[in-house]
Design goal:
The longest helix has 18 residues. The protein has twelve helices and nine strands. It has about 260 residues and is an alpha/beta fold. It is globular and about 65 Å long.
Length: about 260
């Protein structure tokens, strides 16, 4: 949600998203940056639960002003999204300035250099997730913001996040009236290992939730397989024409854990 649209904050929060992000960067014109920053911090002061702020790039004048305002703010958001991150040193600047008060950091990987250093970025101790900034990345490559041109970059980012044991968040789907396209892209993102997908409009949230939630059939299959594996002494067995062994069981257990997490959220 643009920080310059404070009147829309409540509607955005009511969408049911896991995290509602007030944007101070791309969605805000330069002339509106100061007002957006003040509105964002005012929201955090009034009710900071479930909110994040996307600051401007830390190497920009606006980003420096954002960080200074955060240093002086008595209350901080739970999470900071940090755009255009190309090294872990940028995150160290934020963490150093905010000290023990530093919120969870979600860096956005939006350039080839950032992708090349994604593992080091993801490994920063303040990082809790990493987001793919496909819009800027597609601009860097000179390609469309579409699935096929960005698939290799998405896969590389997922691999870095898996190695760092941090979840990867996919780029928003920008065509607001294409619900089928959103559902398809969200399903594809989940299939290659993304843990979540960002939304740019409240009405996108239900489709994204549905795509990332295990289906009833997947849950039933996982439970059946886990029961068979347990009955077989937790050794590799043949079950319904497939081999069940430790790596497959690990996947099924993760699926059940995700189902339980969403059910009791």
């Amino acid at each position: 949600m643009p920080g310059s649209k404070a009147e829309r904050f409540a509607k955005a929060k009511a969408s049911g998203a896991d995290l509602t992000v007030i944007d101070l960067e791309d969605a805000v014109a330069f002339a509106d940056k100061a007002g957006a920053r003040a509105a964002a911090l005012s929201q955090i002061a009034a009710d900071g639960e479930g909110w994040a702020i996307r600051i401007n790039g830390i190497a920009t004048a606006a980003g420096i002003r954002d960080l200074a305002a955060l240093v002086d703010s008595p209350l901080l958001p739970e999470t900071l999204l940090v755009p255009m991150v190309e090294s872990a040193a940028e995150l160290a600047v934020i963490a150093g300035a905010l000290g023990e008060r530093c919120p969870d950091l979600v860096p956005l990987i939006e350039t080839p250099r950032g992708l090349r250093l994604a593992l080091a970025i993801a490994n920063h101790p303040r990082v809790t997730a990493v987001m793919f900034g496909g819009g800027d990345f597609s601009g860097e490559l000179g390609v469309a913001l579409a699935w096929e041109p960005l698939l290799a970059a998405r896969q590389q980012l997922v691999l870095a996040c898996v190695e760092a044991r941090k979840p990867a968040i996919d780029v928003p789907f920008i065509t607001l009236d294409d619900e089928a396209g959103l559902a398809e892209e969200a399903a594809r993102a989940r299939a290659i290992g993304f843990a979540a997908k960002a939304a740019i409009h409240p009405r996108q949230v239900p489709a994204i939730r549905a795509a990332f939630a295990p289906s009833a059939a997947e849950v039933a299959e996982a439970r059946d397989a886990l029961a068979a594996y347990a009955a077989g002494g937790e050794r590799a067995i043949r079950h319904k024409g497939r081999m069940l062994e430790a790596p497959i069981i690990k996947h099924y257990r993760a699926l059940i854990a995700r189902h339980e997490e969403l059910t009791h959220a």
